[in-house]
Amino acid sequence: MKLKLKNSIALMLLLLFSVSSYASYILIPMDAESQKDHLKAYGITYWSLEKKIKVKWLLNYRGGSFLLPAVEAVEKECKIRGVSYEILSDAKTATILEEIASPSKNQEAVILEKAPKVAVYSPKGNVPWDDAVTMVLTYAEIPYEVVYDEEVLSNELIKYDWLHLHHEDFTGQYGKFYGIYRSAPWYIREKKEAEVLAKKLGYDKVSEAKLAVALKIRDYVIGGGFMFAMCSATDSFDIALAAEGVDICEPMFDGDVSDRNYQSKIDFNKTFAFTNFELERSPTKYEFSSIDMTSKRRIVKDADYFTLMDFSAKWDPIPTMLCQNHTALVKGFMGQTTSFDRSQIKPSVLILGENRTNGEGRYIHGIKGKGFFTFYGGHDPEDYQHRVGDPKTELELHPNSPGYRLILNNILFPAAKKKKQKT
């Protein structure tokens, strides 16, 4: 009888132990070895935040993994989307978090609280596959809304937490495509459409309309917004701000001559990221200014990589978040604005990714007022030299792209519970 009682107690203790050690968390690993689809993993994280499920972003732990409560719906969604995940017990989770919290580890657990509302600034007729951000948002199944000049000037940006600038030209020079494509039907059509829209908005010139838009976006960031830009949207945005009140457009762009000696009238105090740059005066040259390194690069394709910087996860979680990846070495890629001359980046701006041997910043970040901005050089992380009319990138072939991961880091950045940045 005593033996049966002892066996019953042992069985009850075993069952109790089994229940208490049962899986309570889901880990979505983001290292190179364990994750089948890094890009869709961000989509799972965003989807969880939409469902009011808080997520811990484990900075520098296995490539920046995500830790979620063991909710059956999350596990099911991972299976549907083909995202690798691991089931963890309370005890195992506690051990991982304790390890991350150790002062000897350059790691941190950052809480993601809510899904940021995403807007993409882009002409309504643009095909989404001609922009890396809209492509990866679509692939990762992260929802976004398209806004353009009318919405921006109507103060609708206030509805969004995060804004991406499509490959826009904010200077009113139509992307500096004049030299090669001025006779192309698409160029003629888009120029006409831009002129019609500017008139509709009450401006005589496209350059004036674009400046007004740039100023509204500036105010959005200063007020606390998060702005992300790639390729020509980066330098042309800053150039437009610096040239406020100065005509830098030649007659083929706006119908009259540019201001005499306009270079001397540029105000670098008005820019977000760049300073002391020289504007490209020739209308036939496919370049805006000396900021861009495209024509100054001496790098062969096979050797074109940039390095992500290493920050303190506990003291500088913001740049650490933006640099989360399963590799510190990222393949380079070209664009109208490929990269930024380091000598023309303001000292207050953080270099997140650089090609040191060529003196160029590839991926930079800064604070403006209460908000933040990130500039990322190049057009498409998985298309080395994208040209007009080239076929779209099939992200199904690049589910573990380190270059695309950097874009998605920026998407989740506004979801994080804020800590004061030390750097």
What key phrases describe this protein's structure?
alpha+beta, Alpha-Beta Plaits, Rossmann fold, 10-stranded mixed β-sheet, Asparagine synthetase B, signal
Give your account of this protein's structure.
The chain folds into two domains: 2-112, Alpha-Beta Plaits (2-Layer Sandwich); 118-415, Rossmann fold (3-Layer(aba) Sandwich), CATH 3.40.50.880. A hairpin with a 4-residue loop joins β13 and β14 (360-368). The protein has helices spanning 2-20, 38-50, 72-81, 90-101, 132-140, 149-153, 178-181, 185-200, 206-222, 232-242, 251-254, 317-322, 402-412; strands spanning 23-28, 55-59, 65-69, 86-89, 108-112, 118-121, 145-147, 162-165, 226-230, 305-308, 329-331, 340-341, 350-355, 360-368, 371-376. It contains 13 helices and 15 strands. The termini are far apart. α2 (38-50) runs antiparallel to α3, α2 crosses α5 and α8 (185-200) packs across α9. By secondary structure, it is α+β, with helices and mostly antiparallel strands. Strands 6, 7, 8, 9, 10, 11, 12, 13, 14 and 15 form a ten-stranded mixed β-sheet that branches. It has a five-stranded antiparallel β-sheet with strand order 4-1-3-2-5, sandwiched between helices. Helix content is 32%, strand content 17%. Residues 8-22 have low confidence and may be disordered.
